[in-house]
Amino acid sequence: MLNQQNAREICYERTFSSDCSPRGVKLKKILLLKKRTRYELEKLSYPQLSYDEYDRCLRIRGTDLESLLQTTKIHQQLSDKLESNLRNAGFQVVVIDRTQYTPDAIEWADLIVTAGGDGTFLIAASEIQNRDKPLLGFNTNPSKSTGYLCLPCSVNNEAVVNRLKNVFFAEKRPSLVSNFIVSLPGLPRTHVKCSGVCVSTGTGSTSWHMSMNRISMTKPVANTLLPSNFIKIVVINAQKIHEFFCKYLPDDPRVHYTIRDMIVSPITPDPSGILPGDFTTTMSVASKCYTADVVVDGTHAWPFNDGTQAELSTRPEIALRTLHFPNLSFE
User: Fold this and answer.
1) What average pLDDT does the segment 48-55 reach?
2) Which Enzyme Commission number(s) are listed (predicted)?
3) In Å, how far are 89, 121, 166, 274 from 313, measured between CA atoms?
């Protein structure tokens, strides 16, 4: 939790400087966005039931009710503790959930704080229209959620995150081939067939991007006459090296595209030469699909059918802004 004296001194600057000089902006009003747990969300589907009746309904359905209740209890305890410490540190705190997260609420706050996981953090980030509005996320269930974008509720160190995660283009039905025209700097417009295109920032390099590009151990071991233990050691080390290079910093100006399961044949890609994945500073994706979507950070989706085109790039002036804590102590 935040040390009270240090919490009062939180500031941020346009240059992400580590000093709290007079140029820093003092933060007084905090909007605390709490996630809704699965238990709470499912209860909304049964408004006519009391909580006892709802619990019985979940048990009959075969849901692990104890696990849901424990997760909810941990989240509530940690988020309540976070709220209490922010108030004790002298901040004015307004607590809301995602249904109350409006432009007016965002405008009121000097700082947006999320209590949940990466999903809650991204919901908060997606509605912020001004990069001068700082955002800070706390992971309220670190035992079950990695929370790459969030600080645990008990930490000794902090990180600065500057971007959102990823954009994904694909047909809605997994069995359909996705058809796109991809344009990259220095390459001709290329028709590709695949199961989807994922474009990730540095923030997203530890999630879907890494999973898509992870080296599989199954095929090398199954398709070789070499001793399996030897192959396993080689592949494990290759995985570690690959994962090291898969991760790149949140403030990296590049994005990385992955053309998932790209079909390679004498006629595709057309023309040949495009890599199934690489870094770039800008790219465009034009749809030749029938029932496709473009999904941003796994939260927002829009139709992306034949004729629709997306231009993707990163620009410093629209980068997400979070906080840097100079010498803050946490306990």
Assistant:
1) 83
2) 2.7.1.23
3) 39, 21, 12, 19
